[in-house]
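In this section we walk through a basic example: taking a raw amino acid sequence and producing a predicted 3D structure, encoded as discrete structure tokens. The instruction is simple. Fold the sequence below.
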Amino acid sequence: MRGDLLTIYFTSDTHGYLYPTHFRDLKPQPMGLLSMRFPKDENTLVIDGGDTIQGSPLTYFCHISGIEPPVAPAMNDRGYDYVTLGNHDFNYGPENLGRYLHSLNARCLCANVQDAEGRLPVTPATVHTLGNGLRIGLVGIVTDWVNRWEKKANLVGLTVSDPLEAARAAIAALPPYDVLVGIYHGGIEKDLTTGRVLSDTDENIACRLCEELPFDLLLTGHQHIALAEGQWHGVHLVQTPCNATHYVRVTLDENRQFHSELCSVSDHADLTEEEQQLMNRLNDWLDHPVGRLSRPLWPQDHLTMALRGTPIADFFNQVQLAASGADISCAALANSVRGFDSSVTVRDVVASYVYSNTLVVLEVTGRILRQALEQCASYFDVDEENRVRIHPHFLEPKEAHYNYDYFAGITYTIDLNRPVGSRITALLRQRRPVEMGETFTLCMCDYRATGAGDFDFYRSCRRVKEIQTDISELILDYLRSHDTIQIRENAAYRVILPTPSR
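The resulting token sequence is shown next.
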């Protein structure tokens, strides 16, 4: 019996999670690129879909310490052949990205990223001939919403164009191939079973790529969905969860049929001496005490925190108001948050505020402020029996609890007996009703200031100032500058629950 014609091992959105740990504690976890091994022969490709060099306490520690994170050596050791770029790979600037790409043995394919200054070794596409003679066409692309999210300073000299048209042009320029594979750092905009539209923006266009381009296999990322054996318009689709908890193994059999499976990861990695030394340094840094809180701040489930408020978000807003001098602050929580003990360590901070965000202060009107609160109020869904749940829009096609914001500097009421768009029944600042035409300064992370998360109205607001220090660093500085930080009980808002059905 003949073997498979092609085997692909695919990772994506590893976010610098190299070690078998989620960094919230010292217990080994089944995750990490260093826990993965990919058996290779001449008919095997190892491919990564981007968001590789930013997003973990490890990469943050390396960045602030001037250490080159060992991502590229780990990938070289595992035999990667091709990578594409993810939106978070731009977060530390083009020079940092260039060092990573130049250190890789793998080739970077990204058809819709052009570097006018020649720092990034990126090509649009290629044809890879396997040992058995099969010619594999490969095209890489990244969501062009990079242009909305990324700091302008990190895109100087770079152009991120429309991914569909760039892929179309790259495919047209390819020499002859037998199988066409897309590596897309972007997600899936439709339910693959029903065809229901899950996202009506062009942030994620995997289905459209399948419909308009001649791909046989599309390797997707960005949404962190665990997906194998997906199908759309005759194209085989896969995606991995984030943080190197799984990879996907794809095979092409002798009948030219694709098969795929999600593969779990061990909680053990055989580390080199250098890798172990770096881990020891990292843990020493993570466990260093930096301050005290008047009480522990532990997370609850997402719905409970959204309904009742959470002191974790209150603490983040306290820091942001102090750093910015703004009238009002809003902060979100990551999908997964460690929380804080009374004695706070660096680990608490970087595992609770996990984003590489900075602060932006906008000038907003009362009208804009009310729009923002209404958008947050859409997080709640009320079923036929008047039970409150999280709206599917925040769960599909990916979990996006980070698009619910908690506010400080105002008080407000959300009435879930009212329809979406008119749920804010009271909005006060300093005990006085906020008028539509009043103006305020509102601080938020730079991601939200781009309008991301269906807050498009922020894009029209004047930027009063930008604070180019990572928010996690602002939190650490705030902790170091106080003996004991008093955490007040949350009283910023209340939610009126729907009347129980009879």
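Looking at the output, two observations stand out. The chain has two domains: 6-279, 288-496. The longest strand covers residues 135-142. In the next section we compare this with other chains.
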